[in-house]
Specification:
The protein has helices spanning 25-46, 58-62, 64-74, 116-133, and strands at 81-82, 88-90, 92-97, 104-109, 136-142, 148-154. The chain is globular and about 50 Å long. The longest helix is centred in the first third of the chain and has 22 residues, at 25-46. It is built from four helices and six strands; from the N terminus they run αααββββαββ. Mean pLDDT is 89; it is low at 1-7 and 159-164. The chain is 34% helix and 19% strand. Strand 3 (92-97) and strand 4 (104-109) form a beta hairpin. The strands form two sheets. A four-stranded antiparallel sheet has the order 3-4-6-5, covered by helices on one side. It has a two-stranded antiparallel ribbon with strand order 1-2.
């Protein structure tokens, strides 16, 4: 669920597959910071020994698209957006489900003619850096037609390797 016009409701990080975040940008920034603070608190309370909250919590591993989208938005990166017909209206990141559990895929998309393809190497490097700061590993790959994407998974915990 997204926050309603009155600002109430559950926060939902932008995945790049919906409309642009609505409302006051400063309010949205506060909501993102609050969601990130909550996530950090969950990590502190549930971290395995030796991890000190530096790696994704079980909640994030079960919902990697939402968790990765929050990490990117908290890192100051802009999400892509689509209109009611599904046409891209903004250039930015898009987070989708990965092929394996606890993974996500990040692409850099924009409307036709936006130059998103030319921006993707630098933009995905910024995405990988933001994700790394929050305990996610992002590997860069080239897909069909040479378009780059990140495959994202939780960093291994001190107690053992992450999901494979």
């Amino acid at each position: 669920m997204s926050a309603g016009p009155d600002g109430k409701g559950a926060f939902e990080a932008a995945t790049g597959d919906g409309p642009p975040p609505a409302g006051d940008p400063e309010q949205r920034s506060r909501e993102v910071r609050s969601a990130l603070d909550g996530l950090r608190q969950i990590r502190r309370l549930t971290a395995p020994p030796g991890a000190a909250g530096a790696v994704p919590a079980d909640w994030e591993r079960r919902q990697p698209v939402r968790a990765v989208a929050l990490a990117l938005e908290a890192g100051g990166l802009a999400p892509s957006a689509v209109d009611a017909t599904g046409a891209r209206t903004a250039t930015g990141y898009r987070v989708g489900a990965g092929e394996r559990p606890a993974t996500a895929v990040v692409t850099w998309l924009g409307p036709p003619g936006s130059g998103a393809a030319g921006q993707e190497a630098e933009a995905l490097a910024a995405c990988a850096a933001a994700l790394g700061r929050l305990g996610w590993e992002a590997l860069l790959y080239k897909g069909p037609r040479g378009r780059r994407f990140l495959e994202v998974e939780p960093a291994p915990t001190a107690a053992g390797p992450g999901p494979s």
